[in-house]
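so my prof wants the structure for this chain in the tokens format not the other one, which i didnt know existed until like an hour ago. anyway here's the sequence
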Amino acid sequence: MNNFIFSIAFTIFSLTIVQAKQINPVDSLSNKNYQYFEEKVIEFRTDSIKAQQFAKYWLKKANEEKNLIQQVKAYKALIHFVDKKYRMIYADSLLEKAIATKNNDILGSAYLTIGAAHYDNNEYTKALDLYILANNYIAKTNDQYLIHKVKYTIALTKYFLGYYDEAIALLNQCMDYFKEENDLGYLKSMHVIALCYTQIERYDHSSYFNKLGMELSSEYEMEDMIPYFKNAEGINLFKQKDYENAIKLLKESKPQFEKVNDYATLITTQFYLGKCYWEISEKNTAVTYFTKVHDGIQTQKYSRPDLREGYEMLIEYFGETNELKKELFFIKKLMEFDKEINQEFKYLSYKIHKEYDTKTLLEKKRKIENELASNRKIYFLVVTLLIIILLGLNGWHLKSKKREKEKFNQIMAELAEKKKSAVISTNSQNTNLSPELTKSLLKNLEKFEKQKKFLEKDMNLAKLAALLDTNTKYASLIIAEQREKKTTTYINDLKIDYIVELLISNNKFRNYTNKALSDEAGFGSTQIFTLCFKNKIGMSPTSFIQQLKSSNQTQQNKLE
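here's what i got, hopefully its the right format
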């Protein structure tokens, strides 16, 4: 995957591969033009030493002639082919020359190239910041191809950082554009969106795009993309616990990544193969793959939070087999890994379940070291600590339950009090509408509430105004004056009141999922529903339903 993103920046540097006659770089180059150097860099793109030599001659000529645009191009070429440790030196010079051009296309493309360099160094947060800067400049241009290239790079980085929904939104835009404009861009966008859907457990969506991607890869004669879709489907099947077919697809895709030296995807493939074999209780085979993942992390300086689980399983395995030195070795490596990912994956790392957090790792490390020295005193300390933690957690849980029950009782009391005075008061002293208009609009508003029109999906100010037979300005005014709320809050509150009444009066709705309740109330999304419910009622729908069930059970027990 890292090779994908860096190749994108190189593609932007030169979209067309120009065939040229091979010559030795030491030949006389003083009379060559810029096009010649560009063609040579592209020709030797698989030979970084030769490509780098031509790029340096290119830069020398551009510096002598003080040609800003060619200086920018030459620096971009050098960034692609020099060793990683020198890239940022050239990046500073690239940015300086790009700024001097005062050209949005050039400046945006420069930021994209520098971002790709950071991405290739696994510095995803820095890369994302630079991609956003690139987007700010490129968005001002009319180059739709470049605009959507930037969107793809931002989406790919967001995928690695764990912003899956945001990545999907961008990738949908990329697919819409690339479908007609660029077959490879279309397939790459489709591949990443499939990976994103797997992570948010939309397995059907992921499978659809993976199968479509394989079909289109053959149709477009881009067979090199097929292994990527097979690999994504293998991960998708693993998440669905179809381990046998997952192993088959992952193994089929693996040779391609070895061939093109796509170490990032290769490491990820080995990780999921290890997890598959672990799940089917072939732990010896699983450990072989997890060890390869560790080797890849060390040699390629590559890290992703989800790979952490491989270390956890290695520690567990060598603990079970009583190989204390190996167990201690991987505990230390896991602690090093944690330090690395916590710098680059602050958003995602806290979402990943950690069986061995840093504190526990330190305790476990100390325990093994003492065991190797025939000192087992740490065992008592660990057990004592765990008991204290469990007691503390139990106490906190009981207090939390008590507070939640008190909150529920308070809510039910307020709802009962509100029901007694259910007559909706009206504000007779409005200053913005005439009495006649107020009376007419208020009558329509009460009709709107009585007929529960607010339950319609995507109800908004415009639709409400149409139902009230007025314009949006008067509609918002009548709600502000007579209901003392903003329009959106007014509609959402009506929806929530409706759902609360259903939950209280009808037991069957208490078995509904949040999504089903959201659909029942006409909300656009489950997330908006749960947020509005909590804001209005003071607790989540799930907690409210649990308390209702508990209260109902208590009453039944009393009757019995």
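also thought this was worth mentioning. Confidence is low (pLDDT under 50) at residues 1-27, 347-356.
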